[in-house]
Write a structure and sequence with these properties.
Belongs to the binding-protein-dependent transport system permease family. This protein has 2 domains: about 40 residues, no CATH class; about 190 residues, MetI-like fold, CATH 1.10.3720.10. It is built from 15 helices and no strands. It is mainly alpha-helical and about 300 residues long. Helix content is about 70%, strand content about 0%.
């Protein structure tokens, strides 16, 4: 039988414990500020309005995609379908070449996102860790480009792509959009927080810039790179204007333009098929967003507060 004999505290240890406890700052838990009732009611009303504006169109979209035709046009509105009309999806798929639209969107989104994020990482590392002439003016110039609306460069890009013979090609869709100051700035904000001591230690070990970037900086900036990748991917998938301008045949159209093609084929009478086509276009990005929403919001908030 063993006994657990604990030593009694001596006077010296008690004094030491008292001194340690005196050195440790005691932080009181933050007091919860209770808002007035009127403020809380106003916040609840704003929350309800926001929920109505953003959620109700999605509910109407998803329910209308499986509604019979008469449920869509009935008044007052029929929110819950009286029967599931899954034929709307087959009608949309056969009325327009959605398989080709999906393939085009997949190719342009994956290749465009890879190139844009890759360039953003390289340029962010250069601005954060490489010394070169005119660094600050160039950085300010890139930030200033974010203030310009994207439509300003449409005409110049179209003329350039046309002169290069890239109209109605994947190169013409992807390459003009791979330069992104927003993604660069987002990743740059995270790279600035990488400790100089860690980078200098890798430098003393003989690592060059590429090795330091690949083995040290990128792993420590991975959360922000993931956030930037998701945001760029959503923008590529939903891009409408540039693919509409630079392509001219149905087999090169992407999904957002395919929806307009579907509406032109179905007219304004078969809204069930059009809603089903819209669900097929929106559902992949909605699923990715719901899975990664915490990462996206956290990354954007961190990028906005880190200086």
């Amino acid at each position: 039988m063993s006994l657990d004999v604990r030593p009694l505290p001596t006077a010296s240890s008690a004094v030491a414990d008292a001194a340690l406890s005196a050195d440790v700052p005691t932080t009181a838990p933050p007091r919860r500020v209770r808002r007035p009732l009127a403020v809380r009611l106003a916040l609840y009303v704003l929350l309800a309005l926001t929920l109505t504006v953003f959620v109700l169109p999605l509910v109407w979209l998803f329910t209308s995609a499986v509604k019979p035709e008469h449920d869509i046009y009935v008044y007052p509105l029929q929110w819950i379908p009286t029967a599931l009309e899954l034929a709307n999806f087959s009608d949309a798929w056969t009325a327009a070449p959605f398989d080709r639209f999906f393939l085009n969107s997949l190719i342009t989104t994956v290749s465009g996102t890879t190139l844009e994020v890759g360039l953003a990482v390289l340029s962010a590392y250069a601005f954060a860790f490489v010394r070169f002439r005119w660094k600050t003016p160039l950085f300010l110039l890139m930030l200033g480009s974010m203030m310009l609306p994207g439509h300003v460069t449409l005409l110049v890009n179209y003329i350039t792509v046309g002169n290069l013979g890239w109209l109605n090609t994947y190169l013409g869709i992807v390459l003009p959009g791979i330069g992104s100051a927003f993604a660069m700035f987002l990743i740059y904000q995270q790279m600035r927080r990488v400790s100089d001591e860690v980078v200098d230690a890798a430098k003393l070990d003989g690592a060059g810039h590429l090795r330091r970037m690949w083995s040290v900086v990128i792993p420590m900036s991975r959360p922000m790179i993931l956030t930037g990748t998701l945001i760029v991917m959503f923008a590529k998938w939903n891009d409408y204007v540039w693919p509409l301008i630079v392509t001219s045949t149905v087999d090169m159209r992407t999904l957002p333009i395919g929806l307009m093609f579907l509406r032109s084929q179905e007219g304004y009478t078969n809204w069930g098929a059009i809603m089903a086509g819209t669900v097929m276009v929106a559902l992949p990005m909605l699923l990715i967003f719901f899975v990664a929403q915490r990462r996206i919001i956290g990354g954007l908030a961190a990028g906005a507060t880190k200086g």
